[in-house]
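Hey, resending since the last one bounced:
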Amino acid sequence: MHLDPLGPTPSAPPRIVALGGGHGLSSTLMALRHLTPDLTAVVTVADDGGSSGRLRSELGILPPGDLRMALAALCDDTPRGRRWHDLLQHRFDTDGPLDAHAAGNLVIAAAWAVAGDPVSGLDGLAELIGARGRVLPMAAVPLQIEADVTRDGGLDVVVRGQSRVAVTSGRVARVRLVPEGPPACPEAVAAVRAADWVVLGPGSWYTSVMPHLLVPELRDAVHDGGARVALTLNLQAQPGETEGFSAADHVVALSRYDPDLRLDVVVADPTWVDDVRELEASVRRLGGELVLRQVRADDGTPRHDPLRLAAAYRDAFAGTWGDVGAVR
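The structure tokens again:
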């Protein structure tokens, strides 16, 4: 017998746009697909490592890896959907040039070649696999991430490339996109402006979450598009990017890059919040309410449980979190 753990769905499901990349965005999408069929993922396109980096360099295309992960997360939880998920995520293990390539990256590259543009290719592929939502790139051109990093002894160095920034030693002092102020994907901007809710995070803070706020058209759409904004915090600091950060530091970091950002809700797991008052204060300064809920998976990993996260989003979006973990 199948039981819906989230209860009945509303008659008019919300239009939700999730901004991010990598495993963090996948967690968000697997949760949000329980709440609405009107779901769009807007995905960072700055990956320069592994299979994505190789295809980006060889074919001159947007890096497909984070887009692939978003498509896989939107596959139906049915035998057919799970087969598509596994196919997209399969990696070759060979002694030849296909080694470590993700099959889904090659499929996306082929879809783009056939369709003639990234958006049409992704839309066609999403229809083919029965994805429960739409996947769009955040920018119309491949991006590079560049960071100023402070290391032991106060030495400042410049680290270039998402794959390097994500694992850098030291503390990230500043991050920027190259080219600066890149053109946004028009369909992504339109989706944000039409949304009821925009969801930021979780994910690598400086390389998956922050970049969306560094694309001017996308940032402006978040500010004045009329959507409410939800921020999902990570479950721990990330070695390299945010080592030593508290939960509140993550919120403050966003506000430093985007002083005009306003939040409606921030979802956090209480197991990582050392100082609830500090986090609540940082959230309130951005106009939001803090919702503390158990959203961590039970397997001991720093991973969000999709059903727990979906329940937290449902209540946060409806403003019905009441006394179950909300800080007032």
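Confidence is low (pLDDT under 50) at residues 1-5, 321-328.

Sorry for the duplicate.
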